[in-house]
Amino acid sequence: MKKQITIAIDGFSACGKSTLAKALAAKLGYSFIDSGAMYRGAALFFYRLGYVSDKHLNEEAIQKSMQDLKLRFKISGSKNCLFLGDENIDNEIREAHVAGIVSKVATIKAIRIQLVKQQQEMGANGAIVMDGRDIGSVVFPNAELKLFLTANPEIRAQRRFAELQGKGIPQSMEDVKSNLTQRDHVDSTREESPLIQVEDAIVLDNSELSKSEQLQWVLELVNKRRESV
Ligand code: CDP
Description:
By secondary structure, the protein is an alpha/beta fold. It has one domain: Rossmann fold, CATH 3.40.50. Helix content is 47%, strand content 17%. β4 and β5 (87-88) form a beta hairpin. α1 crosses α10, α2 (35-48) crosses α6 (109-122) and α8 (153-166) packs across α9. The protein is globular. Cytidine-5'-diphosphate (CDP) is lined by residues 13-14, 17-18, 35-37, 39-40, 102-103, 106, 132-135, 183, 187.
């Protein structure tokens, strides 16, 4: 039997990390975790409590209620969805009010500590594909395969716009573009685990690749890696 490995996928906003990670996990029979969904879930929780908005951030209040943040993935219908307590929040976390504040919330150290711990527990047995911003650098620094995804900003905005439209979440192209630019800036410049391209990551610019071409390219890498570890 081939060795089961850990696959870490990091990269900029909306460059197809989750699409690739999900397809890869399905093909390999691995678990897939969208770590960004967890940060979005945390942002929604604190937004509802009134501790964060596009205008303010109450770090102290957030830290005090960290233990009440209960996020988990659960199958609903045929989909693996994010739940906050017993509520399926998988759609709401994609909406503009969450996208607009998530990067600000993700700068908070206490949140990162709690979510990283949960992510590490989920990946403790390997056979997992996780995507995010700090997976290869912080969550799984020993992952056997690390990918860093990138794509042309114009193409990324078009893909995200189409994705949101498909989910019935209306947002103008202009708003999508400015949200991606703003999040990339905050994510790359924050003090706590910023988005970086780690030395041992393989870079994939998927601007010109279809989903299946991208999957094929990565599967070849995975197979080589599984033979060599
Ligand atoms: O899907 P998209 O690439 O637009 O973003 P996401 O993966 O859903 O992540 C949403 C936000 O969560 C990011 O912009 C980061 O601010 C934060 N995040 C993070 O800080 N660390 C992670 N491992 C994953 C996401």
